[in-house]
Design a protein that fits this description.
Helix content: 25-40%
CATH class of the largest domain: Alpha Beta
Strand order of the largest sheet: 1-9-8-5-4-2-3-14
Number of strands: 15
Largest sheet: 8 strands, mixed
Strand content: 5-15%
Distance between the termini: 63 Å
Number of helices: 13
Radius of gyration: 22 Å
CATH architecture of the largest domain: 3-Layer(aba) Sandwich
CATH topology of the largest domain: Aspartate Aminotransferase, domain 2
Structural class: alpha/beta
CATH superfamily of the largest domain: Type I PLP-dependent aspartate aminotransferase-like (Major domain)
Oligomer: single chain
Number of domains: 2
Shape: globular
Order of helices and strands: HHHEHEHEHEHEEEEEHHHEEEHEEHEH
Bound molecules: pyridoxal-5'-phosphate
């Protein structure tokens, strides 16, 4: 049996990338935030795009969009150059498509990423800051109900660090719900994937996320009209990638359809190299999520059994926790500061970070945003701000990393 001859360039890439810690990382090397999540297949496909000289948004992007939409369980997907761009595209398009009006209020969880909040304002909407629930640190539906006013029309829950935000109670409030699933790939609620639970969901494919296109993002939706609006908004406001391009061209015979602009757009387009990465990452995503979820469950048990003044955030019934990172919170009466604990962990090569933007309303940038409202105190977000932190989780980590973490935590607490 003869096998196809190996392309020497592909062979060279495979040789050069052999031994990278893509699926296995040794806890003897500490607990980093993340390890390299791609291998030779991604690099070969991206190189092919460059060798073919078709590098700007094209067939690979369309293939990846179709594959990712179907993975989430949606009919449409629009790929962009980052998760922040996905959030911006989502909210500006909801306004451009007439689903929301400028000045309408959007409930935003106080704990999220900076570019969860900013795109809402950049779309001409008003952000109402809502506290998070203490179990998974996602938007608290009871706080959301209390925060609503006559202009409140929508909500933007975040599936924080792999936890699943509750979507249904927000819909029952009559709100248009879109999801920030940028750190929630593979999180589930009632057997349905995060990102596909509301009108649209945004994902990030940044280097450190469940799957990566280096930089990249995507919005998924079942709403064909909204998806068309997003395709214009993503690329200058033109009609090229829209399903109704021919009808729009016919309706505006005085403008050359190749440069026909129907909405004030941005340029948020991805490259073919990014989609090349995505096409090879996506088939691995389920396995990555399984491993991260297993880590999350095991590490939660280990920390709980250690009996330390630390809260963990175990997977909630009826959900899948996708284990983006491993958050913890120090008890209010612990006899040490967060800075002391984190310095101790960092010295043992355990990388730490605050829990995303923590309480976004306490970030300096918040003061410069005119279109915001904080109807109630935010005690859970404040506790996260003062006492929360996370360490990395990855599909390349396993039980040994959890043991390293807990051993180090015990050493800190007991000497
Ligand atoms: C919840 C959330 N939203 C948005 C983003 C922004 O994604 P990106 O870094 O791809 O712009 C992130 C990034 O980690 C995130 O965690």
């Amino acid at each position: 049996m003869s096998s196809a001859p190996q392309d020497p360039l592909h062979q060279l890439i495979r040789e050069r990338m052999t031994g990278l810690p893509v699926m296995e990382h040794d806890p003897a090397d500490g607990l980093p935030l993340q390890v390299v999540g791609f291998g030779p297949d991604e690099v070969i496909e991206a190189t092919e795009a460059m060798v073919e000289t078709f590098v700007t948004m094209g067939a690979r992007v369309r293939r990846f969009e179709a594959a990712f939409a179907s993975w989430v369980g949606c009919r449409q997907a629009v790929m962009v150059n980052s998760g922040s761009s996905a959030n911006l595209l989502l909210w500006t398009s909801l306004v451009a498509a007439g689903r929301l009006r400028p000045g309408d209020e959007v409930l935003v969880p106080a704990v999220g990423w900076s570019t969860t909040l900013f795109p809402v304002i950049q779309a001409g909407l008003c952000a109402v800051m809502v506290d998070v629930e203490p179990r998974g640190l996602c938007m608290d539906p009871a706080a959301a109900a209390k925060a609503m006013g006559p202009r409140t029309k929508a909500a933007f829950p975040v599936h924080l660090l792999g936890a699943t935000a509750e979507i249904e109670p927000l819909r029952e409030l009559g709100l248009l719900v879109a999801e920030d699933a940028c750190s929630g790939h593979g999180a589930e609620q009632g057997g349905h994937r995060a990102g596909g639970l509301g009108i649209a969901g945004a994902f990030s494919f940044f280097f450190s996320h469940h799957i990566t296109t280096v930089e990249g993002g995507i919005v998924v939706t079942d709403d064909a009209e909204l998806a068309d609006c997003m395709r214009s908004m993503r690329a200058h406001g033109w009609i090229r990638e829209r399903s109704d391009a021919a009808a729009l061209a016919a309706a505006h015979p005085h403008v050359d359809p190749r440069f026909l602009f129907v909405t004030p757009g941005f340029n948020l387009r991805p490259t073919e190299m990014a989609a090349a990465f995505g096409l090879h990452q996506l088939p691995r995503l389920d396995g990555f999520v399984q491993r991260r979820r297993a880590n999350h469950q095991h590490w939660c048990r280990l920390v709980q059994q250690a009996g330390l003044p630390l809260t963990v955030f175990p997977e909630q019934a009826g959900t899948v926790h996708a284990g983006f990172a491993f958050p913890m919170q120090i008890a209010a009466d612990a006899p040490y500061t967060r800075a002391e604990l984190l310095a101790f962990l960092e010295a043992r090569r355990i990388a730490t970070r605050p829990i995303s933007g923590s309480n976004l309303a306490r970030q300096p940038a918040f003061a410069s945003l005119a279109a915001t409202r904080i109807p109630h105190p935010l005690p859970v977000a404040d506790a996260v701000h003062e006492r929360g932190f996370f360490v990395g989780n990855s599909h390349a980590f396993g039980p040994g990393h959890g043991e390293l973490l807990v051993r180090s935590l015990q050493e800190f607490h007991h000497g």
